Amino acid sequence: MPLALHHHDPATLQRRRRLSYTWAAVVITWSLIRTLIVWAAVGDYGLNPWIYLSIDLASAVVDAVTTPRMVLSFIDDQYRRAARWGLVSLVAFIVPDLYIFLGTRTLPHRIIKALVLIILTTLTVGVVSVLRKIRKGRAARRVEPQT
Question: Which of 86, 88, 59 lies closest to 74 in space, CA to CA?
Answer without folding.
Answer: 86
